[in-house]
Amino acid sequence: MTAFVGVKEKLLSVAKLLDLIQEFAIEPSYYFLRWTHKVSDNWKQVPTENDFPMLEGQMFNQNCELRWKYKRKDSYEVLLLSVAGEYADFSPVGKDWDIQDRNAHLYGSTETRFPKGFPEKAANIAQRYFIDKQTSTVHFVALTITQ
Fold it and tell me: Would you say which domain of life the source belongs to (predicted)?
């Protein structure tokens, strides 16, 4: 596995962001969407144009986590945390990354940290740490799916 952290240089429109999400989605992939007043209630539901505008969201699977955040005028900045090598469409952040996969602690259904549809006993959910090789500092913690 080759760790890669990258950003899109240009802000993406909703249509281009949805295309990018489809490009990185594999089965299974999970989606968290966040608005000012709620979070998505179905973690398996692929976002559509009707879900926008939203403040931010993320899609994750075994290969990557894709994060997006609202900037202005229906445009989003995008961050990719991947273990599938480099992507030419993304500008690299940092140079050398180590990764560590760790178990994730899931909260009960009464907690508001995750959408209501998130399974309490999802044994296949884990965390992936992206660690700078030079400084040994954890810069990103991504959600991932284990096999």
Answer: Bacteria
Domain span including residue 122: 4-145
C-alpha distances out from residue 40 to 47, 100, 110, 128, Å: 9, 28, 15, 22
| Pairing of β 56-60 and β 125-132 | unpaired
Nearest alpha carbon to residue 31 among 96, 115, 104: 115
pLDDT tens-digit readout, 16-72 = 999 999 999 999 999 999 998 888 878 889 999 999 999 999 999 999 999 999 998
User: In total, how many domains does the chain have?
Assistant: 1
Compute the Cα dihedral for 90, 136, 2, 70 and give only its sign.
negative
